[in-house]
Design goal:
single chain, four-stranded mixed sheet, 62% helix
């Protein structure tokens, strides 16, 4: 099981990078701006989430598109490694959190939003 989880971490990171690469430049720019404004943050499940209400339709649409790409990457990882899609997302979230710049937001599983 540990071997599968380690494989999932490596494969999920590669697939998530591909999913991020598949996002449109406009979606990425929208989310990057929303993250720097504290509107959107990374979650421990590997998906983007709204830190606070008031995000405009462009932010919500971009977040949905990026999360859809991530979900597909996590499903692919699960199929290739024998772990669940949830485990693949959580493994990727650990890596995403490590790369968050200071001042951006992260939400642990069953926890409250925290500023890095």
């Amino acid at each position: 099981m540990i071997r599968n989880l380690l494989a999932a971490v490596m494969l999920s990171a590669a697939l998530a990078a591909g999913a991020v690469g598949a996002q449109t430049p406009a979606d990425k720019a929208t989310i990057d701006a929303a993250k720097s404004q504290g509107v959107v943050g990374e979650q421990a499940d590997g998906f983007l989430g709204l830190v606070k209400a008031g995000a405009g339709p462009a932010v919500i649409s971009a977040m949905q598109q990026i999360n859809a790409g991530r979900a597909a990457a996590y499903r692919d990882t699960a199929a290739k490694t024998g772990v669940t899609a949830d485990a693949a997302g959580q493994a990727t979230a650990v890596q995403l959190r490590a790369r968050l710049p200071a001042g951006e937001w992260y939400r642990p599983l069953n926890g409250a939003w925290t500023r890095k």
